[in-house]
Amino acid sequence: MTTSRSTQAxxxxxxxxxxxxxxxxxxxxxxxxxxxxxxxxxxxxxxTIGGPFHLLYxxxxxxxxxxxxEQFRRHGIDGAIYYGKKANKSAAVVRVCxxxxxxxxxxxxxxLSSALAHGIRGHDLVVTGPAKxxxxxxxxxxxxxxxxxxxxGELDRLAGLGATARVLLRVLPPDSTSRFGMTGIELDTVLHxxxxxxxxxxxxSFHLSGYDPIARSELAAALVDRCLHxxxxxxxxxxxxxxxxxxxxxxxxxxxxAFTEDHDPHWFHADKTFDSYYPYHQRPAGxxxxxxxxxxxxxxxxxxxxxxxxxxxxxxxxxxxxxxxxFRVQGVKTRTARSLPYxxxxxDGTSLSLSEQWFDSEYLPDPVLWPTRPGAVTPACVGAATxxxxxxxxxxRIPLPRPAVIGDLxxxxxxxxxxxxxxxxxxxxxxxxxxxxxxxxxDADPEQPPRLRWTLEx
Length: 458
Ligand SMILES: *Cc1c(COP(=O)(O)O)cnc(C)c1O
Fold this sequence. Notes:
Number of strands: 19
Domain Orn/DAP/Arg decarboxylase 2 N-terminal: 68-254
Oligomer: single chain
Bound molecules: pyridoxal-5'-phosphate
Shape: elongated
CATH topology of the largest domain: TIM Barrel
Organism: Nocardia cerradoensis
Pfam family, one: Orn_Arg_deC_N
Active site: 387 (proton donor)
Largest sheet: 9 strands, mixed
Structural class: alpha/beta
Protein name: Lysine/ornithine decarboxylase
């Protein structure tokens, strides 16, 4: 996973005496506003499940896919969207990708099988990852998937399979220390030596860390010449894949600035510090970041001129605002820092279901305390129901709008991308939180607005 982040040194010179971080309220999609405003639905789901759970609203993934595709259309280019499946394991997300004409980027036999089983056709898969297993290469060729070849030896292994293989050659970006991709010399050797009959080189791919659209645009532009050269050698090149890393904008600019500019370790339980965070506020983000890639030096025009299809592999960005994670408060302690009281909450799950802690960082969008009631702002940090000192969901003291009490719910917003299930395990023999699928459907009474229904993901 690529989670490169902006780095902020904690500001030790701050003169603030506050023990509470500024509020970091997440942007909300319409389905979340309806859910939080509903006086019963969330409570009914929590009561039925009886433990922590993830919510997914797959229809939002469809909206995100359509918004990326709209950028291809506006720029008059041929484009393809492959969902970076490692960002979330949900079958319902794959299903909605299939329904909206997106493929998937998979990297294991399990991911490939799951993508096929939930409706994505073999031709619409791209198989990435280093040194792929024999089983994965065999299945990928059987199903006609594109294979992003990571090293020259992989081409020999494909040739040995005796079937036709569709491949992209993965490029090691210049001046990169990445362990993935091939150097310029390796690419040249491979292009000259590969027989286009069984191995169809359909193009090139890369995946950059960070979220900079300009870097993606410039590397894509530099690879256009490589595409033309490969065509001249007889390879049926159609596609340039620029990978994922379309940023997600979780928080408003003002909130993010208040957090980063005045960043103070005293906002955190035990004065905990982190070296870096995901950049929770980004402009451009998602489909607008794709537009920035295409607009820079008019990349779109170059792609059009040479009839090159641009492929993207967004993971996190397709899941933007498509899910949240719900825990129940099962313990409340009062502690003090600098003589000021705060709540130390314990919830009924673990940070394995909110992964950012496992990347030495913290998930910063504020959880919503539900039910929403007026009260006095109360700082609170959030610990897990485990015996690990380090298992905290939120080390920072969040300004909750009222004191939390046992039985309240904490709804962590926008967790579908990487937070929910990348790191989950049944540590302590705790059950894995199930995924609850929400959908919007017309009410029986046509005078009423559409309502939310829920089911469990199978
Ligand atoms: C992880 C990954 C992606 C998805 O990255 P996001 O940052 O979630 O968009 C796409 N392509 C490759 C090759 C990856 O490894």
